[in-house]
């Protein structure tokens, strides 16, 4: 695999200027987050129609990339969500125009395909073998690592052309474009510190006061992990959060007796801040967020399963990834009458909206079609009493 390394600021600036004259480029990243709170960018790969470059973020100032990302040049990625998160933290910007080949392939019947499987299916191109657990922060990288990294972008532009030609033939290019823009503007993944407690295992069995303490301690842990750029589990394990929530210590001595707490949690400012968090939590009134579907009126909850079955059938018949059509959250939002629901407007509404309304209003029903599928049939209105 032929590629060029960029390890100086001057070379990066020159390459960005070159890319600004191109219509598009392929982009991928390698990163780690096992030892940090925020993802640590370890390598950035970019390909255009003529060459592949590997950019070393440990050696270069990446700020020149902002000009590229904020331009009209199209960025082509595969499974871009994590890459966008990484770029947000590393560069302070993400591409203004984005095409995700994984998302786009979903409109051709693929279900979140890997790049390996998509390249094999569409281009008959085998991918370079690589170690999934490789250390991308190591320098120098081996030839095998570099070949593997370069292969992630080597065929992306051709793959986009192949997918886009099929989408155009099916009249689905606009659908894919809309889905890619939804992904691009989606908030960076992460945890709202105030809601971190709700992700704790077994948190729903806690009583009211314990919930308040769990909320306050988990929020303290999340904010401290952010400030230290350290994984939350290294700041305070989940077991300790739950142990503190149940015991509700008022003194350092009591804190030391909580399950999961060790000496580093009781010394200095950490111990004092944890006791303060307990006091804050005891004064708070915290309720568990409603489980998905519970925010619907009780008589509407069975409709989620019924409509989900219909969505799955439409996805199967139309060869569209069901996850692109509607998630369970989308269905609950739509059934609740939320005007901001993704199903309330756009191509999803055109695709599914009328059928869902007919089902929940009792004007249609689902039956087996005798061939292993489902069909929507009209239902005669019941005679007036």
The tally of beta strands, per DSSP, is 8
Strand order of the largest sheet: 1-4-3-2-5-6
Number of domains: 3
CATH H level, superfamily name of the largest domain: Ribonuclease H-like superfamily/Ribonuclease H
Q: Provide the low-confidence segments as ranges.
A: none
Report on this structure.
A hairpin with a 5-residue loop joins strand 7 and strand 8. Helix 9 runs antiparallel to helix 13 and helix 14 crosses helix 17. The protein is an alpha/beta fold. The chain is built from 17 helices and eight strands. 34% of the residues are buried. 47% of the residues lie in helices and 11% in strands. The mean pLDDT is 93. It has three domains: 182 residues, Ribonuclease H-like superfamily/Ribonuclease H (Nucleotidyltransferase, domain 5, 2-Layer Sandwich), CATH 3.30.420.10; 90 residues, HRDC domain (DNA polymerase, domain 1); 81 residues, DNA polymerase, domain 1, CATH 1.10.150.80. It has a six-stranded mixed sheet with strand order 1-4-3-2-5-6, with helices on both faces. A two-stranded antiparallel ribbon has the order 7-8.
Write the layout of secondary structure elements.
Elements: E1 4-6, H1 9-19, E2 24-32, E3 40-47, E4 52-55, H2 65-69, E5 74-77, H3 81-91, E6 98-100, H4 101-105, H5 115-123, H6 143-154, H7 156-170, H8 173-185, H9 208-228, H10 232-235, H11 238-247, H12 252-256, H13 268-282, H14 301-318, H15 322-325, H16 328-335, H17 346-360, E7 364-368, E8 374-378
């Amino acid at each position: 695999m032929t590629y060029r390394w960029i390890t100086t600021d001057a070379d990066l600036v020159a390459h960005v200027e070159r890319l600004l004259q191109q219509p598009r480029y392929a982009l991928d990243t390698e990163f780690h987050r096992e030892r940090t709170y925020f993802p640590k960018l370890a390598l950035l790969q970019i390909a255009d129609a003529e060459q592949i470059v590997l950019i070393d973020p440990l050696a270069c100032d990446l700020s020149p990339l902002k000009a590229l990302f904020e331009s009209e040049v199209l960025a082509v990625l595969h499974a871009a969500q994590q890459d966008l998160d990484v770029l947000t933290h590393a560069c302070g910007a993400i591409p203004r125009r984005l095409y995700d080949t994984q998302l786009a392939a979903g409109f051709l019947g693929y279900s979140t395909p890997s790049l390996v499987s998509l390249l094999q299916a569409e281009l008959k191109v085998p991918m370079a073998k690589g170690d999934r657990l490789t250390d991308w922060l190591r320098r120098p990288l081996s030839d095998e690592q570099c070949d593997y990294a370069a292969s992630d972008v080597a065929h992306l532009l051709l793959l986009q052309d192949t997918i886009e030609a099929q989408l155009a033939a099916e009249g689905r290019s606009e659908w894919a474009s809309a889905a890619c823009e939804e992904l691009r503007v989606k908030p960076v993944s992460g945890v709202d510190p105030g809601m971190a407690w709700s992700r704790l295992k077994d948190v729903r069995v806690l009583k009211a006061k314990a919930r308040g303490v769990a909320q306050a301690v988990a929020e303290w842990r999340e904010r401290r992990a952010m400030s230290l750029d350290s994984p939350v589990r290294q700041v305070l394990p989940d077991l300790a959060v739950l142990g503190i929530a149940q015991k509700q210590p008022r003194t350092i001595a009591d804190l030391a007796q909580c399950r999961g707490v060790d000496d580093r949690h009781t010394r200095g400012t950490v111990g004092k801040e944890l006791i303060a968090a307990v006091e804050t939590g005891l004064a708070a009134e915290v309720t568990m967020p409603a489980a998905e579907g519970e925010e619907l009126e009780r008589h509407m909850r069975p409709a989620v399963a019924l409509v989900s079955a219909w969505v799955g059938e439409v996805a199967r018949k139309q060869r569209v990834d069901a996850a692109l059509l509607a998630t369970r959250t989308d269905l609950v939002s739509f059934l609740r009458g939320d005007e901001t629901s993704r199903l309330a407007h756009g191509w999803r509404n055109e695709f599914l909206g009328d059928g869902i309304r007919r089902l929940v209003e009792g004007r249609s029903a689902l039956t087996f079609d005798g061939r292993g599928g489902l069909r929507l049939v009209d239902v005669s209105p019941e005679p007036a009493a």
